[in-house]
Each structure stands twice: as C-alpha cells, then as structure tokens.
Protein 1
Amino acid sequence: MSESKGQFNSNFGFIMATVGSAVGLGNLWGFPYKMGTNGGFAFFILYMIMLFMTGFSIMLAEFVVGRSTGKAPIEAYREMNSKYTIVGYFAVIAAVCLLAFYCTLGGYTMKYFTDNFIAIFNHSGIYAASDTGEFFNSFINNGPNVVLFMAVFMIINLIIVMGGVAGGIEKFTKIAMPALFIMLVIVIIKVLTLDGATAGLTFMFKPNMEAFQGTGWINVLGTAGGQMFFSLSLGMAAIITYGSYLSKKESLVKNAIIVPVADTIVALMAGMAVMPACFAFDIEPSGGPGLLFITLQQVFNDMGSVGPIFGFLLYFLVFIAAITSSISVIEAVVSAVIDSRIKNGKGYNRKVIAVVVCAIEFLLNLPTSLDALGGAGLPQPLGFCWLDFYDLLAEGLLMPFGSLCLSIIVGYGMKMDWMAKEIELEGNKFSGRGYWTACFKVLSPIAMVFILLGQIDGFFGLGIFG
Ligand code: PHE
C-alpha cells in the first residue's frame, strides 16, 4: 500500500514543526549553562557570529536540498549528484545515533513531569525528596523504570509520526509549540519575581571579556558554534526532510531567518527561566543532566506549596520541546526508508515503517537507558558511556563533517544559480544573494572546520585550542 509522502498544509505549520525540531533539550539545558560558564554575553556574541557565518546559510541550504528534490537526505543528495550520496548517509546515520540517546532523555522528562504532577496533589514523592541528587541517581539506577519511560516516550513519538506529516506532525506541533511558549513565559515571570533572581540574569548577561583573552575565544567559538548547530537541528536529516514537505510557494529565505531567530529567542528565554531560579535559591548552576534534573528540582522543592505546579509546568515544557525534536528525527529516518523503497519500485506503508524504525531505536536506546548500570552489560565503546558514544558519532563527528561537506557542495559543486532556481520559484526573491554566496564559499566552511575541531577537542580532551 502506498500513499503520497505528504506535505505541510501551511507555512505556519511548517514553521511550528521546524522550530519544534530546533527547540529541544539543547535550548533548555545546554544553552543557559554554556552561556553562563563561557563568558555570558561574550558567549552570546560569538554564538551570533557563528549563526551569521554558518547557521542561517546551512539552514537555507538544507531547505533547498529538501524542497528541490522532494526527498529525504540519501536520495536527495543522490539526485543532486550520485557522488554526494555519502553525505546523505552521514545525515541519516547521525539521526539514528541522535535518537539512540535523545529518547532516553525524553523518558527522563516524562518521569519528572509525572512525578511533579502527582506531587501537586499529595506533596510527597519527588517533592519530599531531601536530596534531589539522590532521587535522580536512584531513578537512573532503576533500569526497568528508565526503560519504561523511554518506551512510553517512544510510543508517543510513534503515534504522532504514524499520523503523517499534516495529520500527525503538523497538527501536534501547531498546538504544542504555542503551548510551550506560554508555559515558558509563565515560568519566567514566576522565577523573575523570586528574591535574588537578578543575580542569575547577571550571570548570564554580564559581559565577561576574560573569555576573549589569549586563545580562549577560539575555544568559546567552538563551543558556541557546536551549540548553535545542534540547537538548529542541522546536519541530522531533519531539516532537509521537513524542507521536502514544504510547498513551492513559500519563501525559503524568509523561513531560513525565522527559524534560527525563534530558536535563539527560546534559548535566551530558557536561560532566563533556569539561571535566575538557581541563583534565587543559592544553588550553584552546574551543567548537563545535573542542572536540569537535580538543581532545578531542588529549586521547585524549595519553592513551597506552589513548587510542584511550577515543577510540572517546567518539566512538561521540556518534554514538549524534546518530543517535537525527536519526531523530526524519526520522520527523517522513516522518510529515508520510504524513499529507498520508492526508488526500488516497491510499495510502502508509512505506519509499518514507523513501527520498525521505532522498534530499532528502542533497542539502540536500551544501553543508553541502562548506562548507569553499565550499559546492559555491553562493553563501553571507546571507553565512553553509551550516551556519550552515540553523541560523539552524531553531534561530534557526522553532524559537523556532513555540514562542512554541504557548504562546499553548495558553494563549489552545485553553485548559487542552482540555489537561486529553487529559491526564486513562484516569484520569491533571493534577497541578500551576495551574503549567502560569501557564506557558502568562505564563511561557512571556515566556521564548520572550527566547529568540527571544537567538537573533537571537547569529546577527546585533546587540548587543540589550549
Ligand atoms: N535541536 C534539538 C535540540 O536543541 C536537537 C536536535 C538535533 C533535533 C538534530 C533534531 C535534529 O535539542
């Protein structure tokens, strides 16, 4: 049984889905912490420089690759030129690896919003935990529990993706993204009225020019660039796939500006929700899972009887952010499989493919979910825990390397007239063509080399940047 691959019904739906892909765990925990520890506003300036050098342009390039071919990455690159096909494989493999840890983290968010929800009524459980660090550790050491939440997260993803592009993804994100925004505003207002909250804003926004001394700024540039890239969902098949479902009438240039700007605004807002809360309760903001699941829970537990309500709101919005990101990646993998069946003259059933993809991802997530217990008894790959290993492959290597290839392909292989042909369809304008050309030919490749080196440095601690 074959159906049409689908299309977004409206540009608004496309933007909500794409911003939904971009706004994820990267915005809600990575950005505030990295900004705070890398020079505050100085980090933000370097983040913006990276956005102008490569973020906007790779977003535009991925839209063009997707929409001009109407295909997911592997077949899209093949159609451009068969020698580029490998870059499509990089993107799809990156997507598979990303999901292999992202869904486990998605499960964590579900555990936290459900526990906070229950605490609204009985003020016990998570809310009564005297040590939120211990609570977190006992959760991640409870293998069946972690796997259960990961599985439920996966099933919700599956249901949405089985619904198709317009009937599942667009319908869901059109409601979920505005809801996320409203919840974020409510949490920010509450947090900013806490005593001592402004110290958190100072932590985030105070320009700390020490970051620019010596070679430190190169380091920060690598961190900011890597963060920006992950946050925009670039290099992981999702944006090309969503682009392939966009109507030819819509302006790609406009959308390539709107999505990164919206993503950056939400990242800044996330920082304004998270950091002031830590400072108001005199809690040292630490990074990674610790910040999101230990520090913030402590904040809610210290807040008094309204704590569980705000805890529920925050973790529910993090869950929404995570799921609107993971569905974009699952859709990309599903779409790649559909394309390969079409190419081989076979019929396809989207629902069956979605079930198979999710089942495989469930298996790949098992060692990640059981990381705290030694990864399901599997050996630690390269000495990394499974989460870090999958992340190294996806975010550390394939994403930046594939995107470096993409900027070179666009700048030197396909060239600007090829871009223009797709962008200028139906009377749309290729505004700022000089800027985009400079990005593809020079700025973006340079930035991508920095990001790639920064990622490798970060994962292997090579000290390339001193
Ligand atoms: N952008 C998402 C985030 O910030 C992560 C992501 C990366 C989603 C790549 C899809 C593809 O969490």
Note: Residues 85-122 form the longest helix (38 residues).
Protein 2
Amino acid sequence: MNYAIILASGAGERTGLNVPKQFVLIENKSVLERSIEAFENHSCIDKIILVINPLFTDLVHEILAKNKYSKINKILTGGKTRQISSYIGVNAVEEQDAKVLIHDAARPFVSAKIINDCLKALDKNNAVNVAIETSDTIIEVNENNIIKKVPDRKRLRRCQTPQCFDINVIKKAHELAKKDGIDNITDDCGLILKYNLSDIYVVEGSVDNIKITYPIDLEIAKLILKKESN
Ligand code: CTP
Ligand code: MG
C-alpha cells in the first residue's frame, strides 16, 4: 500500500498573505489542489492522508467537496511544527507494510516522474529523498556571520519532497525524536539520519518542484505553469 501524506498545516508566514500559501490560487487552482492532484492522478498511489491547519478546516472541506477526490483516506489536524504534523500523518497509517511519501503541500509541481522514481527507489531502500544540485555556492557561517566552511558544491544538494519511507522506519524515527523532546526538525530524512536508522537514497528532483515560500515564488509558479502548458 502506497500512501501520500500531504503536509498542509503550516501558516505560511514568510509569504505574508492573510491566508496560508497552500490556499492561494495559481491560475484558478489552489496550491493545495495541485499538490493533491499530483498523487490523486498517480496510479501507484493508493491513499492520501491530509494533515491540515485546524484554523482552515472549513476551507479544506469546501475544496474537497468541490473536487471529489477518490483517494483521501484521512484528514487530520497538524501540530505546531512541521515535524509534529509529519508525526501525526505517519501515525495515522495502520498497515504494517506500507510505504509513505511525505510531501509539502507547498510544492504544487511535483511530477509523476519524481513520484515514479521515488517508488522505484523504495523497492530497494527504506528511505528516499528528492534533491537537486545547487547553482549557488553554499557556505556555513558561525553565529557571528563568519564563514566556517565552503563545502564542495559538487557534493551539495537542495532537498525537496516527497521524502519517502518504509512506514516502520519513519515511525521509529518519530518515536525516538518524541522521546528525546525534539520537535523542530524541518525534514523527515534528518530524523532518519539523526538516529542512524537507514541509508537514505537520493533521487533527482526538479527545478520546477519549488516550495512556495516567499511572494516571488507565486510569480515563479505562474511562469512554471505557463511553460508546462506550452
Ligand atoms: N507544515 C505543516 N505543519 C506545520 C508547519 C508546516 O504541515 N506546523 C507544512 C506546510 O504547510 C508546508 C510544509 O510543511 O506545506 C513546508 O513548510 P514551510 O514551507 O515552512 O510552510 P509554512 O510553515 O506554512 O511557512 P512559514 O514557515 O513561512 O510559516
Ligand atoms: Mg514553516
């Protein structure tokens, strides 16, 4: 059984709008609908778990009523950090032998190819991440803004989602973090790595698989759609 867990419980503070970014329309369709459809329309995804912001349940139910998706399995309210929202989603999976693809609702352009590549990689790996090369050099600074390191760019990647796991492995990672009182890790693979639970295989993402974060990303999103329709 392949689950998509879509994390849509954030507030979207950095976009600075009066509604969280997952509800913003890009050419007549919201970011959330586009993210759901990527998985709804993929033949290898069986069920979708939605983790939503409790302040916007009515809006989500309106969106769901309008679209009549067939794979929505559970609608849960998230927590105060992404990690907690992910924990809530992961724990809602009952099957023992499930695979889960945990996706940011704020990435509306995840492609069928990325989902395919993730599922294929999950046949051989218990943890899979999606990432792309970095065009900028990345530096590490200390607390005084002094450069500590300039890591070799060839080895650096920018992480996207979905991040994909054997359900038992990611459940264990979240349980261990909970026990340790850690609740603010921004990426599920970070938990796997922290507790050394599995190698994490990396599949190639896409420059189109952006995370809507700042207002400019909504403009970029329109351009991505325009390019796709050409
Ligand atoms: N997310 C979530 N629960 C949270 C925080 C984030 O489900 N408590 C989700 C967001 O809805 C988003 C994804 O995790 O789809 C990535 O998080 P981010 O880009 O940081 O979104 P927000 O937290 O909404 O934005 P900001 O940090 O600017 O407030
Ligand atoms: Mg956030």
Note: The pocket of cytidine-5'-triphosphate (ligand 1) is lined by residues 7-14, 20, 22, 51, 78-82, 85, 104-106, 211, 213 (CB under 6 Å).
